[in-house]
Amino acid sequence: MEENSESLHIEESLALTCPSCGSELAYSAEKKKITCGHCGYLEEIDIAHNKVVERNLAKAIEEMKDFIPEETEKKVFDCQNCGSKFMVEHKDVKIKCGFCGSSNINLEAYQHQYIQPTGIIPFYVSREDANNAFDKWIKRGWFHPNKLKRLSNIEDLHGVYIPFWTYDAHTTSQWSGQAGHYYNKTAYRIVNGKQQAHTVREIRWTSHSGQLQHFFDDILVVASTGLKQSSIERILPFQLNEVVNFDARLMAGWETEIYTIEIDKGYQSANNIMDYKIRNMCSAQLGGDTQRNLHVSSHKSGQTFKHIILPIWICSYLYQNKLYHFTINGQTGKVYGQKPTSWIKIAILVLIFILFIFGIWYLRESGVLKA
Questions:
Q1: Spatial distance between the Cα atoms of 304 and 197, rounded to a whole number of angstroms
Q2: Each residue's pLDDT tens digit, 49-60
């Protein structure tokens, strides 16, 4: 291909070549090593984590205001394997050569972002493990169609490295509210001209206030618009103590995204998560059987962040021409997804319940059962 002389070239990319046979290397979740599928060459991964450090959030947000992102949409990619040249999106992390089929990692996709990742958790759940997890998950639950249990064909299964932000913060909160404690008292009423006693539940309200101090460590927020935070929270936790220094070689053979949610927007989500947890902790301090008028005022300080990459299997399956999605934690194997509901089974259960109630009523009316 003959490219325009004014076209910009991708200067930094990574193509993993086997030192033994020259074939392409990839990271294997099954072996947890960089491997060659042709000759069996194995290479250990570096488990150091000295570069995974916290950064000052306020300083990063202020410096980000002066950052001007690169406007060039396409660049020329020079394939290191066959020497061909072709145009690619400069934000594409994974580049596959259409001439020789080799896979390359575009390091500039990360370098042209304001904040580059410092840590990564490699995939521990292999494709086979992901398929097995799906098979077990799809067979659980009584209120789903029986045909679903025989479904074993996943229409779409992608192992994707997803960008995340983690946030730390010291918090001090002042709270006040009223705790209600239930108690019973005897009351009287007239029934058929006679006075009868009955028990009434009352609430005794007491006012309280207090202070809560709490340190939040590694509030995890997804930095990609492709996944919802609510879906991510269903497959938590990740064992973040296993984060290692970011190494692009671990992404070889896998799909990868770069962040599309900026650090300040991510912190807004983290702030909401912290406020929700703070309110629950203050509510626990307030105590009581019930509560009212709980007011919480919080101050956060010392906010820091990290940018890390985490592994997630993103999957889908087709049932009766409708697509259902589920996700698998690529480190722990925890699954969350959607399943169709069998309304026939629900209707049968409701019918059985109605017949049961009717049966009790009939037996009482006929005198077989006495109240």
A1: 62
A2: 999 999 999 999
